[in-house]
């Protein structure tokens, strides 16, 4: 083999991610055959060495990852809304290092929430998105409803644990809006070819660890090898689904497509989708995932949940456009414009004053002295990192 051919076989060079109008997620990725082969052999060797489920976990509970001011703000609203739904499940909030102050921990503890520092459970630092599978693996709960910090429940989610399909298979996943391009090297790496299967949106995951211990550990491995898998899978979100696929394990994906929640832009009548709306197994909206405009940068009294756009049943075409919107102050944000065979629903007709209630919780948090002190702590940590070494 020539030197040039060897270099190509050993190459791994990532480019842009793009989305086609018919809902396919594309990546520009030069992936050499030797790298693909090595990745396949490595995950297979890891999977073969995963020990059996160790036991020691008990009960059901909710896990939220929420380090730092942005995600603490979101989690605070999330937790208060959960309690308003009547949910009685115990809650763990996971963070790393000095992301929480002792005062923040004490305040969450007063709400009945347990705070867990990932650094207390790992000799190596757990960075960013990898905290999600790590927290699920290491929580004290055997059955876990994982929620992103910015994911609001519209009703008591405890019902999910009683779903018969979950009880049989040990997991429920929720759909994203895209499918993975068939030329993505992940298909060769895990030796699968169901190219039309929908991608996963991991803002909510239901898992029985005893049933899915091996799959969950492989998911964690994919996150540890993020320099490869995040490139192919757009971060952590699909590492769960592809871990199950790699092991040829069945999983249950909610059949109703994700909808988008937002408002119609008066300037050009386009739709600004800023939150994902996910459904329960019988098709009712159970989660509003405020993923594109989070609570920490929501202005006082700002409302964005006016409409929900969802695909009609058996829609033949799905046209989805992602836009970046510039604002007068130079700050911008992403929105999703859902087009094609869609129907528009009135948010308040379906979910009442949920957004208003969330804003009231947000305003009360911002008015608290604790929040002001935490904001200052976060500011110092960002602009003066040595500040951390001089605090307790």
Automatic annotation (TrEMBL):
Membrane topology reported for the UniProt record: Single-pass membrane protein; Single-pass type II membrane protein
Record-linked Pfam families: Mannosyl_trans3
Chain ranges passing through the membrane: none
Chief localization: membrane
Domain of life, source organism: Bacteria
Record-linked SUPFAM superfamilies: Nucleotide-diphospho-sugar transferases
Subcellular location: Endomembrane system; Golgi apparatus membrane; Membrane
Assigned keywords, A-Z: Golgi apparatus, Membrane, Signal-anchor, Transferase, Transmembrane, Transmembrane helix
PANTHER family per record: ALPHA-1,2-MANNOSYLTRANSFERASE MNN2
Protein name in UniProt: Alpha 1,2-mannosyltransferase
Species this chain originates from: Niastella soli
